[in-house]
Design a protein that fits this description.
alpha+beta, single chain, 6 helices, 363 residues, globular
């Protein structure tokens, strides 16, 4: 049983600890005010309404538009480097299901930096300018469904090339593929006969720049979203995610993001949509004015913004030849499918050799 002397001793110690926590940590002090994120009011929608909104956007089957292109090369993201490039002028002709032609130009001068096309199965890219070295001026051919990350990995891990020199000279459009923008700009319609759709909700903490002011440098908010996920089911009953749509629930229900997945459930494209606006001369199409496409595998991000929304043409029927690029510049041709097969054969031959393979890691 505690005597009076010990009781006073423990009481004094407790008061000291209380003072430390109250003053130092700001948890117990009544004067401490911790700012919390503002929970924004959300609106409700049924799954049918979300599906209808996707189909409404998917009614656009073709488009021709001039756009501002902002490119960011993330090839060296592991080294903490993200190479940003100035905005370029772009002209896009796109038609469902997967046909696209993209021309990239230098602003004001109008000289072509690159041209690229995809007919839905094959793509062609003509790199016409690379900053003066001429090393990357090529005519590249490949297949849309093929993963060329192995080729990219081989170049990045090549110890015979100085990493700084590679970063300086690598062409910004080497990994750019025209088909990466087809599903971003022409959203594929809903197909209940082929896919299963599941709806859920999520709340994210974000910065709302409308609330940013001198007194509050960061306007933190809690914003609610609907998630609508599209799944395919194999013959043995295994479900695989194909797409995920994000719907902003604040101030209405609007598509704000689309994520497209490969057969392994890895993200192929992460597409963020900006605010909507009126496109075409009569303003009959209400679509996002800005689209940002991130390609994790190819390690780049491209932001597309309509230059003159009223001049956008929608609903025209373009000939097939418009989506097949010819090598009229007599550039050196690079067949990525052949290159990939050569790398695979080389790796296979090394793996069956007598000497063990040692993977070198750059420091």
């Amino acid at each position: 049983m505690l005597n009076q002397k010990n009781l006073l001793k423990y009481t004094a110690t407790a008061l000291v600890l209380l003072t430390i926590f109250a003053g130092g940590c700001g948890v117990i002090s009544p004067k401490s005010k911790q700012k919390t994120a503002t929970l924004l009011e959300t609106e409700n929608a049924t799954q049918s309404e979300l599906l209808e909104q996707i189909d409404s956007v998917a009614k656009v089957t073709s488009m021709r538009a001039k756009m501002d292109l902002k490119f960011e090369d993330n090839s060296y993201a592991e080294l903490g480097i993200a190479e940003k490039y100035k905005t370029a002028d772009g002209e896009i002709v796109i038609q469902r299901p997967e046909k696209i032609r993209l021309i990239v130009k230098i602003p004001f001068i109008g000289s072509d930096v690159a041209q690229m096309t995809s007919d839905g199965e094959k793509f062609r890219v003509a790199v016409l300018q690379d900053g003066g070295s001429g090393k990357y001026k090529k005519f590249i051919l490949g297949t849309n469904a093929t993963d060329y990350s192995l080729l990219q990995k081989q170049v990045v891990n090549d110890e015979s090339v100085d990493s700084k020199d590679l970063k300086k000279n690598v062409n910004a459009f080497a990994n750019l593929r025209p088909q990466h923008f087809t599903d971003a700009m022409l959203v594929r319609p809903i197909d209940k006969t082929k896919y299963t759709y599941l709806q859920s909700t999520i709340v994210q903490e974000e910065v709302d720049f409308k609330l940013v002011n001198k007194k509050s440098p960061l306007g933190w908010v809690l914003r609610g979203y609907y998630l609508l996920e599209e799944y395919s089911t194999s013959d043995d009953g295994v479900m695989t995610i194909a797409r995920r749509f994000w719907f902003d629930r604040v101030g209405g229900i609007n598509i704000s993001r689309q994520q497209i997945f490969d057969e392994n459930g890895e993200i192929e494209s992460d597409i963020v949509y900006g605010k909507k606006g009126q496109l075409t001369e009569d303003g009959s199409y209400n679509l996002p004015m800005q689209i940002e496409v991130t390609r994790p595998k190819e390690k780049y991000r491209m932001r597309l913004t309509y230059q003159t929304p009223k001049d956008v043409l929608i609903g025209r029927d373009f000939p097939d030849q418009a989506f097949v690029l010819e090598n009229e510049w007599d550039l050196e041709e690079v067949d990525l499918d052949k290159k990939l097969q050569e790398v695979k054969n080389q790796s296979k031959n090394q793996s069956v050799g007598d000497e063990p393979i040692i993977t070198k890691v750059q420091k």
